[in-house]
Amino acid sequence: MDFELRRAREKLEKEQKERKESARRKLEKERKAKEEGKKQREAIDAERSRRLFDAAQAQLKADQQMQESLLVGRGIMFYRVFEAVRCQGSGDKIKLPASCFNELQDQGAFDQGPLYFKLSTVHQGGSSEMIDADKEKGRSTHSGVLEFTADEGFVGLPPHVWQNLFPTDTPNIPLIEVLYVWLSKGTYAKLQPLRIGFSDLPNHKAILETSLRQHATLSEDDIFTVNYGELVYKLQVLELKPSSSVSVLETDIEVDIVGADNDSEKTHENVLKPLIFGTLESGTVDEGHYTYYKFTIDNDTWEKIASGDAKVEVRIEAEPNSGDTDIYISKHPLIFPTRHQHEWSSHDIGSKVLILGSKDKSLEAVTYSVGVYGFKGTTKYQVSVNVQDDSNRTIGQQAVSSSSPMDMDTVECKNCKRYIPSRTLSLHEAYCSRHNVVCQHAGCGVVLRVEEAKNHVHCPKCEQAFHQGEMEKHLKVFHEPLHCSCGIVLEKEEMVQHQASVCPLRLITCRFCGDMVQAGNSAIDVRDRMRGLSEHESACGSRTAPCDSCGRSVMLKEMDIHRVAVHQKN
């Protein structure tokens, strides 16, 4: 009996204990659930508060951006994001979709004058910290607009704009922010060439002006390109006034060009080294390469040359056991003479001398370039330019004997064709027949020593006479086919004439802008062709300028006719 009561009591106590533990676990679970719910409500409230704060901040930022956009756009709000694509063109004018035209027109942007835009790169992906770090490195520039013909969602960027926004790598999807802005007219610009030699260009500021004519804006730290024939120069914008971005349309800008940064572009591009009269300059040139120099004939020196009292001597002395060179000379604006384009040349083996005198019609008081071309091997040389004074020469000096050979008792030698006194003719003929030989080549007839005759040869193409050792170089220089960029193939002499007067790709100086441009084909307009204008000059001369006398806007190519017809000025 006691055993059963004890078992019943234990069972009851166990059940009570289990109910208490179950109640405790239930209470603990409910407490945890309440705490978790409280945390979730707090997190939701915090997230809602953060979102409200972010929305307020974004709205504030958007309002600020709108105010700033309205301020920089003078009341015009235009902001779009496009995918950038490359397009052909020079300068900084971009292509926008047609929808942008309607949006800008509705806001009256076209009534404000030329359109200017700020272009900024858009960084994609990554955390907010990465994005903020990238934004500090984001690039921006300014541009005008060329036309509204781009596809919707895209903006066409010319090479100048593309290189300034994406100087190194291009992202997979290059996104660009386009913001309409108003820019003040520029008054001052400081530029720095990224390579030396830009200041050697003749009238380089006129060339710079021609290049800037293709731009609508300039921004600090931008790099723009100046083309001079086949040469390309890059200039960096260091400083602008009155602001860091300015308009260059219809304005006069004071331009300062500082010295080139030698570390910016470490290349082996052509550079003109100055030559001083009477001073030797040492140098080395490799086969197939050029080394260039320059010298200037001033007005005083030119007066002496024109009167025949002086000549200019350009001499190059090669070191013994060195290679071989050729020398080419041109006058500016052709600043880098080549095998195809030059005024004077010398191809002698070893040392070379070129004499420029008053008989040279191309000679005048300008700057000249000397190109030393490595023809064979690596050559060490010394080059110099001297003015030879001929004013002390004896004028009108009589010969020792004024009698002609025919006035004396002379007979013509049958071998050398010289007139010999008859009393010594037999002795001379005996000696001449043993030691002298007459070249039998048609039209030559030169008298040679017997030991020299074996080295006397004639070119099979032009029939000129040469020493045997000079023939190989002559054939290579004068008769090896040369390929012109326009596609024609000619020998050297014909190629020089072709590139000087016929080739459509030859460089000429535009009579209106002063820039070196390709001649191109004949002008389309018949009147321009009759004036002798090239294709470029026909277009360049269509620009207008105010007449100095009446202030009327007249096309540059019509200015002479206007002055004669209206103002009777020759």
TrEMBL record:
One Pfam family cited in the UniProt record for this chain: UFD1_N2
A GO BP entry: ERAD pathway
Keywords: Ubl conjugation pathway
GO MF term set: polyubiquitin modification-dependent protein binding
Domain Ubiquitin fusion degradation protein UFD1 N-terminal subdomain: 89-173, 185-258
Gene3D superfamilies in the cross-refs: 2.60.120.380, 3.10.330.10, Ubiquitin fusion degradation protein UFD1, N-terminal domain, Zinc/RING finger domain, C3HC4 (zinc finger)
Classification via InterPro entries: TRAFD1-XIAF1_Znf, Ufd1-like, Ufd1-like_Nn, UFD1_N1, UFD1_N2, Znf_RING/FYVE/PHD
Domain TRAFD1/XAF1 zinc finger residue range list: 533-562
Record region (Disordered): 1-45
Any Gene Ontology CC annotation: VCP-NPL4-UFD1 AAA ATPase complex
Alphabetized PANTHER family for the sequence: UBIQUITIN FUSION DEGRADATION UFD1 FAMILY PROTEIN, UBIQUITIN FUSION DEGRADATON PROTEIN 1
Family: Belongs to the UFD1 family.
Protein name: Ubiquitin fusion degradation protein 1-like protein
Species: Pyrus ussuriensis x Pyrus communis
